């Protein structure tokens, strides 16, 4: 019998949380191995053998190594979805292209703008979040709002890995760049819809609270010096 897939991760990380959500959606149990990024464990010789880009998350599925959260989510959905149910990552080429487009929107637009807010605080001692970075992050909400015109989820009426990846970023973004309900009503409803999923709290909210608590705590400390 094969061992459980191993996920090298940090619970605060939005991409890692996206993988946790995907595994939960599939009913798949992972062996979790914590990576301390601040201590640069991701740059160790051992870790670099797994992922030369030295990023997390990384999946080791009985010797098959997969890096980048979006690729990992697709890999897990392809391999571990119940027989006959490809709804999380449709095999239909047209639907899959739409899911992939949303995944690329997350990695090209959403998540980088989140990183530009939280990482300077965590790693470089920044004491405030510039208003232009907040506004720039909020501009990314518009693309999701338009995607949601076609249904309850980012690709129609069924939950996909695009939703699970994007919610990890959007839930983090919202803590620093509020979503205006009058401007983005569909997006607000989508966030609430995803938050109601039974496995959301454990696999996203807990790590999100850790990250937001850390960043806002550091900001408060530095503003009072």
TrEMBL record:
All residue ranges annotated as the GST C-terminal domain in the record: 92-225
Entries under CDD domains matching the protein: GST_C_Delta_Epsilon, GST_N_Delta_Epsilon
Pfam annotation, one family: GST_N_3
Bilayer-crossing regions: none
Superkingdom of origin organism: Eukaryota
All copies of domain GST N-terminal, residue ranges: 3-84
Record-linked InterPro entries: Glutathione-S-Trfase_C-like, Glutathione-S-Trfase_C_sf, Glutathione_S-Trfase, Glutathione_S-Trfase_N, GST_C, Thioredoxin-like_sf
GO molecular function, one term: glutathione transferase activity
UniProt-listed GO biological process terms: glutathione metabolic process
Protein name: Glutathione transferase
Organism: Drosophila erecta
Gene: Dere\GG21901
């Amino acid at each position: 019998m094969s061992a459980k897939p191993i996920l090298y991760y940090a619970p605060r990380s939005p991409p890692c949380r996206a993988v946790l959500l995907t595994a939960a959606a599939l009913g798949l149990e992972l062996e979790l191995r914590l990576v301390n990024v601040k201590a640069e464990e991701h740059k160790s010789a051992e870790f670099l053998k797994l992922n030369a880009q030295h990023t997390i998350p990384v999946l080791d599925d009985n010797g098959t190594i997969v890096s980048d959260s979006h690729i990992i989510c697709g890999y897990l959905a392809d391999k571990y979805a119940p027989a006959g149910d490809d709804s999380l990552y449709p095999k239909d080429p047209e639907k899959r292209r739409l899911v992939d487009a949303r995944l690329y929107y997350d990695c090209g637009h959403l998540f980088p703008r989140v990183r530009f807010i939280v990482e300077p605080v965590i790693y470089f001692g920044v004491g405030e979040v510039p208003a232009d970075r907040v506004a720039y992050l909020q501009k990314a909400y518009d693309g999701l709002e338009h995607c949601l015109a076609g249904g309850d989820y980012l690709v129609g009426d069924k939950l996909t890995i695009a939703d699970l990846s994007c919610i990890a970023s959007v839930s983090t973004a919202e803590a620093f760049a509020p979503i205006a309900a009058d401007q983005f009503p569909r997006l607000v409803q989508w966030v609430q819809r995803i938050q109601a999923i039974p496995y959301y709290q454990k696999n996203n909210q807990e790590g999100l609270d850790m990250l937001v608590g850390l960043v806002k705590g550091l900001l408060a400390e530095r503003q009072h010096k």
